Amino acid sequence: MRLVAVSAGLSTPSSTRLLADRLAESARGELEARGHEVRVDVIELRELAVAVANHLVTGFPAPPLATAIDAVTGAHGLIAVTPVFTASYSGLFKSFFDLIDPEALTGKPVLVAATGGTARHSLVLEHALRPLFSYLRAALVPTAVYAASEDWGSGGDDYTEGLPARIRRAGGELAALMAARPDRETNRDDVDEGDDVDALERQLSDLRFD
Questions:
Q1: Which residue in 77, 143, 184, 193 could disulfide with 109, CB within 3.0 to 4.6 Å?
Q2: Cβ count near 66 (within 10 Å)
Q3: Which residues face 145 on adjacent strands?
Q4: What sections of the protein cross the membrane (predicted)?
């Protein structure tokens, strides 16, 4: 299986990249425990910023950007992580996903996550990231992960789960959807799209009530 993580962090080192790596490791560990071989690729959008801007103007992707787009559209599962800018996803993050064919993520398991300086921006997951990938008809996992500065190294308390627990739960949910999803790239003629969507909805429902 191929798992792709997209990180829109701009600094080096980046908490956004760190969160993407930890989520990818969580999902990979769960998939390997289920007997799957997993390849993980991480796409750093900061390295593609100029190519993204040029593509928006010219309509033609440079080879590194075309490779990144192919990786996202061809993945069995996707992790998308952005820093919060002005209470939403970053412009670079949005510009990259504007270049993805609107049908390419249909039914694809996607885990969304974000990083920010304060917990008060955590609702970006619900008012910005979920609507974006719902529009693209992706199969979003129930748990989205937000990491504020104070979350790193925190174990949580009696009322809230710490960041490591949220990462484990989200990675497990993504792995479950990836493992259960038909391989529509190789079996597209054998799978009815309506049946595929219904099956994914049942799987998401099961995950919510475990």
A1: 77
A2: 14
A3: 113
A4: none
Q: What is the DSSP letter of 87?
A: T
The span from the CA of 143 to the CA of 189, in Å, is 32
106-159 pLDDT, tens digit each: 999 999 999 998 888 899 999 999 999 999 999 999 999 999 988 887 655 544
Question: What's the average model confidence in pLDDT over 162-189?
Answer: 81
- Quote the longest CA-to-CA distance of the chain: 53
pTM of the model: 0.84
CATH number of 2-208: 3.40.50.360
End-to-end CA distance of the chain: 25
How far apart, in Å, are the Cα atoms of 53 and each of 95, 105, 179?
A: 8, 22, 35
Q: Report the distance separating Cα 119 and Cα 147, nearest Å.
A: 8
Q: What is the residue type of 74?
A: G
Here the tokens at position 71 are 């990786």
Instruction: Please state whether 59 falls in left (phi above 0), alpha (psi between -120 and 50) or beta.
Output: left
3-class state of residue 112 by DSSP: strand
Write the CA distances from 179 to 76, 77, 113, 154, 205, integer angstroms. Answer: 9, 10, 21, 30, 16
